[in-house]
Amino acid sequence: MKKIYYSIGEVSELLGEKQSTLRYWESEFSELSPRRSSGGRRLYTESDVKLLKRIQYYLHKAKYSIEGARRHFKQREPEIDIIDNLERIKRILEE
Q1: Residue 78 — pLDDT band, cuts 50, 70, 90?
Q2: C-alpha angle 52/53/56, rounded to 5°?
Q3: CATH 3.40.605.10 fits 8-94, yes or no
Q4: What's the pTM?
């Protein structure tokens, strides 16, 4: 069963990024806005995690700057969907 919300620690571990990096990306990309709990903790949905994976792809694999990633982030590129599908298939096969 999938969770509805993920904590910043869980997302950080999933992506292999520091929590401070995720908070920084949140300030740089307006499309990324996780919900907040009543205590102010960030609550990421599955769609937020997908957005973070796209940002991570542009910054680390495609080697874009923050500004370049912002521009390309607004465009939906099929290669990102392919990468997501391959990662999903890999997880299924590993299970």
Answers
A1: low
A2: 85
A3: no
A4: 0.74
